[in-house]
Recover the amino acids of this structure.
């Protein structure tokens, strides 16, 4: 087998070590990037959002909330009147977010409480605490909401 730039036994060994190191870094990077996967309770405590990964994009979907009345909630504040009758359950509210460095950026978050969509960035403060910054224009002009990881078995 011939690897470009690896002509002697010593350089071949160095190339193999470098290749293995890059593979390990890629695995570590993927594990850090997937740190936000799971179910989160929004800042108001009235919604459960499941963050999943679709290829390189992280998306958040409303999967429920603590309301036990069974009353279905709808997207009543949506600026598009044709969407106001859609149920909030199953609605994707976090889209387009990608992991860069130590945070997730480039995405958008939809707030069904006011019907507005904001640019967003997310950062894990610790394993169970997620900072979500929603903003218009630049992050300086925005609002931060803290989400907490939902413990399995809690309602």
């Amino acid at each position: 087998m011939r690897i470009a730039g690896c002509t002697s036994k010593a350089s071949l060994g160095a190339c193999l070590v470098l290749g293995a190191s890059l593979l390990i870094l890629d695995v570590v990077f993927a594990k850090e990037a997937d740190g936000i996967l799971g179910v989160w309770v929004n800042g108001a405590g009235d919604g459960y959002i499941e963050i999943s990964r679709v290829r390189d994009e992280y998306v958040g979907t409303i999967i429920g909330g603590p309301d036990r009345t069974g009353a279905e909630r709808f997207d009543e504040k949506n600026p598009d009147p044709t969407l106001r009758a859609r149920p909030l359950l199953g609605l994707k509210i976090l889209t387009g977010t990608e992991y860069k460095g130590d945070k997730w950026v480039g995405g958008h978050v939809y707030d069904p409480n006011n019907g507005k969509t904001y640019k967003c960035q997310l950062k894990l403060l610790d394993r169970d605490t997620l900072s979500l910054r929603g903003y218009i224009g630049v992050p300086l002009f925005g609002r931060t909401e803290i989400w907490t990881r939902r413990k399995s078995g809690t309602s």
